[in-house]
Amino acid sequence: MKKETKEKAALNPVVGATEEQQIQKEFKESITNEMVVGNTKPPEILGIEEDSRTRLAGLEVMSMTELYDSSFPPRVPIIDGLLNCGTYLFVGAPKVGKSFFMAQLAFHVATGTPLWEYPTRQGSVLYLALEDDYARLQQRLSMMFGDEETDKLFLATRAATIKEGLDNQIEAFVREYPDARLIIVDTLQKVREVGEEKYSYANDYENITKFKEFSDKNGLCILIVHHTRKLESSDSFEMISGTNGLLGAADGAFFLYKKKRTDNEAILDITGRDQQDQQLTLERDLETCIWKLTKAENEIFKPKADPVLEAIAIFLKNEKHWEGIASELMEAVPILGDLIPANVLTRRLNVNRTNLYKEYGVCYEPMQRTSDRKPFSLKLVESE
Question: For the segment 73-93, what is each residue's pLDDT rounded down to a tens digit?
């Protein structure tokens, strides 16, 4: 696969904002791409200290106190309220419109434009369209997006199987394009070994676990397209072809289905570890085959306003950048003394690092500690 050389300005992402909190509204637009550049690396890569981790005969343990004293990188969604970092299944019956949805999803992440009303963070996308050829992909993308194109969406129609080195191929892609956010495998069956035991829980679990380990290590999303089984069930996710090992190992799943095969309307059920269950009603445009959102059962979850985080965000609006320890921040922001004890403030920041990052546009970073000081830095997105 050749790297494209044509330069093209990225489309400006449009990020929604809440009306309830003025401070969140002001920060929201800048956080989408300013704050998150490339994929989110795991704690080990960002230098989380291992001193507090106890090893017992090879078992690594951490107390609850030590856990609260640790700071982990923010987990920022690929698409707010819809798609997070991790490994997810995208399941549907044959010809229900899965590949068109994958192309639509890939295009929005690659361009950074919102998918329906959901804000999207831009990054490179690898779409393994293993049931297609390049001619069909060209026609499909042209029908969907016309003359619009992006040099951040990469497509391949052939890849190694899981056991033949697929992980090495996608790892090479991530090294070449460190801003990678999304990898689509269409379909799971194409990367399984020929003759692999069809209904083995162990095999299903092992296959998805390999993808999950990669997505967790590199801080991106791997979306795996898969088919349904023929047997009907009242629980849509029980219709995933194969054993429970697939969903058990994955971070979540999307299930696209129609009440009647000839319907132009479809339902998208969503479940996952890091998001609320959702059900979206979609309608496919007959001319472009683009899926349009007509109804969402649940609104995007918004965490309750935290007065401590709000006070810090307001302070940073003027300061832009601050460094010090918790007691010094309490002196700089006197209102914090009425809200939280000084000896708890650092833990509050550790636990709410993602919330502070996403909702208030403030980057919290622990600094090199000394024997008696635990300094940290606070920065506004716009000052990074």
Answer: 888 899 998 999 999 999 999
282 plus 365 within the same structural domain:
no
Domain identity same for 281 and 364: no
Return the SS3 of 339.
coil
- Low-confidence stretches of the chain (pLDDT < 70) are 1-53, 194-199, 229-239, 241-242, 299-301, 382-384
pLDDT at 239: 65
Angle, helices 307-319 vs 22-34, to 10°: value is 70
Check residue 203 and give left, alpha or beta (phi > 0: left; psi -120 to 50: alpha): alpha
Strands annotated E in 206-340: 221-227, 252-257, 265-272, 275-284, 291-296, 321-324
Range of the structural domain that residue 193 is part of: 86-296
Residue 53 lies in a domain: no
First-to-last C-alpha distance (Å) of the chain? 34
What are the backbone dihedrals phi and psi of residue 297, each rounded to the nearest 5 degrees, phi first? -70, -35
Q: What CATH number is attached to the domain comprising 315?
A: 1.10.10
Q: Is residue 370 part of a domain?
A: yes
In the DSSP assignment, the letter for residue 101 is H
Q: What is the pLDDT of residues 158-169, one digit of tens each?
A: 999 999 999 999
What's the whole-model pTM score?
0.78
Which of 296, 324, 356 terminates a domain? The answer is: 296
DSSP 118: B
**How many domains, the chain?**
2
Q: Is residue 322 in a domain?
A: yes
Burial class (CB within 10 angstroms; exposed 0-12, middle 13-18, buried 19+) of 44: exposed
